[in-house]
Amino acid sequence: MWQALHAEIAPRGGAVVTVALDVLADRAAPWVEAAAPSHPSVLDASHLTDELLGFVNVPMAVWVDEHGRIVRPAERASIDPPPPDAPLPEGLPERLGRMMVEVRKIPRDGPVYRAAILDWVARGADSPYALSPDTVVARSAERPEAHARAAACFELGHALFQRGGTEAAAPWWREAHRSHPENWTYKRQAWTLVTTTDGQPSDLIQGPNDVYEGNWLDDVVAGGGGDRYYPERVL
Amino acid sequence: MLLDSLAVDAEAFAARTGWEAKPEGLCRGEVCVPAPGAVRADGHLDVTIVAERLGMPLVHDDVYGLWALGPAAGGRTLASADAPELTLPLVDGSGSWSLSSMRGRRTILVAWASW
Question: Are B88 and A153 inside 8 Å of each other by CB?
Fold first, then answer.
């Protein structure tokens, strides 16, 4: 999807850059190889862009104009058309079925966001989607002490993961999760590197595990459900 | 910012955080915070003082002897609309990329993940 958008906007002076928030490069690489992007595709193993730009989930995006100025801060950024609203398949495992219910609550307005991107690429500062500098700053996320601490804890955990694996990283990643529970990149990243209590690869459904306190479904429900899975976006 | 001691090179600190050591204190843009004692005799910054003056959380792992200094707390994630310099490796390992290389193009920077 992003490669197709890049191909469409590149002749008009636009560009897509994808940032993989992946501790392990070899997990991101096959996806990139399959997409064969003509745009830059970079790796952010320590989730530095969370700290600098405010990403808290994926996909999220920041728009940067031709002068290096941010014109839209980090926001939900799916551009996919919504899937058909078919009934859930029968016989799904109970937990997976509940997950699907929450997933379907996530706003599915990808074409609207895609159209906004196209408008901005075409019209630049004249686009109503290009925000003033003051509005960009005002709409960027607040950073209380707990969130700043979470960023430090996640980065330290990443460094320790490289040295001692999950055992070394987990105390700091748990602290990052507790300090900034709305940051799903910290949580999903950590969950996907451990197995679930029933021995399943955690990156399948990111279910309960013995290392971290949370899991995808219970944390989504605790946060208010799938419709609050991303920060609110105002186009 | 990952640290293996409580002294940090001032240029590296500025590149990561945007805060520069100046005679009037630690400054980012037009904002300066007095920080007496922050610049050591060897020219490095005393991380403990910097953290306290700028409200940056400092965490330490005793086993591995590493520290991490978080971003300044309070305010918003973006201190200004000027995009920070950002340099990251390409996923295919063929080199690195910098956000500043995109000047002249309207760029959508998209975060995704394999998980």
Answer: no
Which chain A positions have a beta carbon within 8 Å of B57's beta carbon? 145, 148-149, 152
Instruction: Supply the pTM of this predicted model.
Output: 0.95
Tell me whether residues A21 and B82 touch, CB distance under 8 A. Answer: no
Pick from B82, B102, B111: CB nearest A19: B111
Average pLDDT over residues B75-99: 96
A121 has which bridge partners? none
> Could you tell me if B41 lies within 8 Å of chain A, comparing CB atoms?
no
CB A58 within 8 A of CB A230: no
**Nearest Cα to Cα of residue A76 among A63, A64, A60:** A60
Residues of B in contact with A124 (CB under 8 A): 106
For A137-162, the pLDDT digits (tens) are 999 999 999 999 999 999 999 999 99
B112 to A18: CB separation less than 8 angstroms, yes or no: yes
HSE value, Cβ hemisphere, 13 Å, CA-based, for A52: 23
pLDDT tens sequence across A165-181: 999 999 999 999 999 99
pLDDT of residue A204: 67
Residue A120's nearest CA partner among A59, A63, A54 is A63
Write the single-letter amino acid at A90: E
